[in-house]
Amino acid sequence: MNTPTRPRLAQHENSVPFFWPFTAAAALVEAGETLVARNLDFALEAEKIDFGLHPGFATANRVRLDLHTLRLRDFSAADATGIPTLVDAPYAGHSSTIADYHKGQSLVETLLANGVERVLVTDWKSATPDMKDYDIDHYLAELLVCVDDLGGRVNLVGLCQGGWMSAMLAARFPDKVNRLVLAGSPIDTDAGHGPIRELAHTLPTSFYEELVDMGGGLMEGRFMLQGWKAMHPGAQYVQKYLDLYEHMQDPAYVSKTEAFEAWYENPIDLPGRWYLQAITQLFKENRLAKGEFVGLGRTLTLDDITCPAYLLAGEADDITTAEQVFAARALLGTPQDRIVSTLAPGGHIGLFMGARTLTDTWPGIARWLAAP
After folding, report:
1. Of 147, 178, 240, 250, which is least packed with CB atoms within 10 Å of its CB?
2. Element (H or E) spanning 25, and its range?
3. Is 292 helix (H, G, I), strand (E, B) or coil?
4. pTM of model > 0.85
5. Strand pairing partners for 312?
6. Domain count of the chain?
7. Which range marks the domain in which residue 368 is found?
């Protein structure tokens, strides 16, 4: 293959592995040219197969708002009362259904079962070509529309990327956030020594700009997916199918596997401008933690957040390290005795849909949210 971009990408093939949307695409490079060449043909052919699986929410809901960037989904009963809890799902290359993964294994279901009556989720849309120049302000503005439509004051539960966006909104409009949960959220991107931190400071901005150029102004989800799969081609193209074959007589296993594959195999696109802004201003320059990020016309200071806060990190999370989450304790203006920090077993995705975390940790968070 002799494209203009290949030689420049190849020079970074010895980089630390890429894991999440800001960095996952480069896993094609990290895998090495030889390995990529061996698996690329199979990957492209497999990508053409449509198994009819598409991500969906497990719990009954209605669309309360349909905006440019998201649909606001309401999972509450008709007679539900109390302060709304808005789950800001990750806008990170996959759909928001990870917040309501599967019946019996759902964050939405767990919140509803443990005292939170009004639960809503941001169902982020895949970016279209006319959205390629949308920036973080576009997404903050529509998140603000959701909060105001719910009465102007909510509990915010930010998952991963949804956490730094929730923190931005809480810093910009402190009176609109009653309680704040940051789960697996990179607040101080310079903290710790995780792989994403290392890559953010290793690869030049031009590398990421090249990826966006390849997508015509978008960071394409399909390219990110190939990057994730190239990290573990044996597991993605062979082993998972062998595992499914072995458990074909187990309906519960098959159902959960289908739910995960529907989510995993259907990535969404991100606006190129949004993606590059996140790369440079948040992961390279760490402006949010430093009090230098400008959101909706104001320089945001995390010290302006004074509401009760709950910080949740994964012990084995190599996407957002615990240090990046727990650093918020020293950055928020919330009194220390009103901040709860929990280190849960497991990795990143497990924080939002893992059976153990949903059973052992999230019920307590739900009761904390529902407390007067």
Report:
1. 250
2. none
3. coil
4. no
5. 183, 342
6. 1
7. 1-372
Tokens linked to 329: 């304790």
The kind and range of the H/E element at 212 are: helix 205-214
Alpha-carbon distance of 134 to 102, in angstroms, equals: 31
Q: Provide block-wise average pLDDT over 10 residues at a time, the chain (372 residues).
A: 36 34 45 43 43 80 98 97 97 89 94 98 97 98 98 98 97 98 97 83 89 93 67 52 61 73 82 96 97 98 98 93 97 98 94 95 98 90
Show contacts of 58-61: CB within 8 Å, 24+ apart. 58/97, 58/100, 58/101, 58/102, 58/103, 58/106, 58/108, 58/109, 58/259, 59/100, 59/103, 59/106, 59/108, 59/109, 59/112, 61/100, 61/121
Q: What is the CATH number of the domain that holds 348?
A: 3.40.50.1820
Q: How many whole angstroms separate alpha carbon 289 and alpha carbon 354?
A: 29
Contact 200, 279 (CB under 8 A): yes
Tell me, what's the pLDDT at 256? Answer: 72
- Contact criterion met (CB below 8 Å) for 77 and 84: no
End-to-end CA, the chain: 62
Cβ atoms of residues 184 and 313 within 8 Å? yes
Reported residue count of the chain is 372
What is residue 335's three-state secondary structure?
A: coil
pLDDT value of residue 240: 56
Cα distances (Å, whole numbers) of residue 27 to 22, 35, 48, 185: 11, 11, 20, 22
- Of the candidates 97, 125, 91, which has an alpha carbon nearest to the alpha carbon of residue 109? 97
Computed on alpha carbons and rounded to an integer, the radius of gyration of the chain in Å comes to: 20
Q: Encoding tokens for residue 92?
A: 């990170």
What is the model's pLDDT at position 40?
41
- Alpha-carbon distances, residue 316 vs 20, 85, 122, 144 (angstroms): 15, 27, 26, 33
**β-strands 70-74, 119-124 pairing:** antiparallel
Burial of 280 (0-12, 13-18, 19+ CB in 10 A): middle
